[in-house]
């Protein structure tokens, strides 16, 4: 299953328009890109976020392929874009309209973990990076 999830994640990264070197890093080295305002870097540079990602993947049998970081009125949030373990859901993991993409994600509210949840978020792609806008 993990191999199929990775293949689907790569398809979604291309659909969203993520910078090719980030897709290559994911494909060849299992590196996940962490985006801060469209700018990206590898998640291993943020050990706390990487640990949360691994915990999420293990607990829910999902595959994280990109992460965004936002400060909102309700807390500091990290959005983990995921491919679920359920292939029948994969055609709805990302729905795109121009540069806006409705993506299935787990949102971790670092300030109030009780408010963390799965759901659809909106990310905008620009110049190979992504940013959550809704």
Order of helices and strands: HHEEHEEEEEE
Helix content: 25-40%
Number of DSSP E strands: 8
Distance between the termini: 30 Å
Strand proportion: 35-45%
How many alpha or pi helices? 3
Question: In terms of per-residue confidence, which ranges show pLDDT below 50 for 5 or more consecutive residues?
Answer: none
The domain count comes to 1
> What structural category do the secondary elements indicate?
alpha+beta
Oligomeric state, counting identical vs distinct chains: single chain
The major pleated sheet works out as:
8 strands, mixed
Q: Could you report the average pLDDT, rounded to the nearest whole number?
A: 95
Overall shape: it is globular
Query: Could you tell me the radius of gyration in angstroms?
Result: 13 Å
Structure description:
The chain has helices spanning 2-16, 20-29, 47-60, and strands at residues 33-36, 39-42, 63-72, 75-83, 94-97, 100-109, 117-126, 129-132. It is α+β, with helices and mostly antiparallel strands and 134 residues long. Strands 1, 2, 3, 4, 5, 6, 7 and 8 form an eight-stranded mixed beta sheet that branches. Helix 1 (2-16) packs antiparallel against helix 2. The radius of gyration is 13 Å and the shape is globular. The N and C termini lie far apart (30 Å). The model has no long low-confidence stretch (mean pLDDT 95).
Topology, pairings included?
Blueprint: H1 2-16, H2 20-29, E1 33-36, E2 39-42, H3 47-60, E3 63-72, E4 75-83, E5 94-97, E6 100-109, E7 117-126, E8 129-132
Helix pairs in contact: 1-2
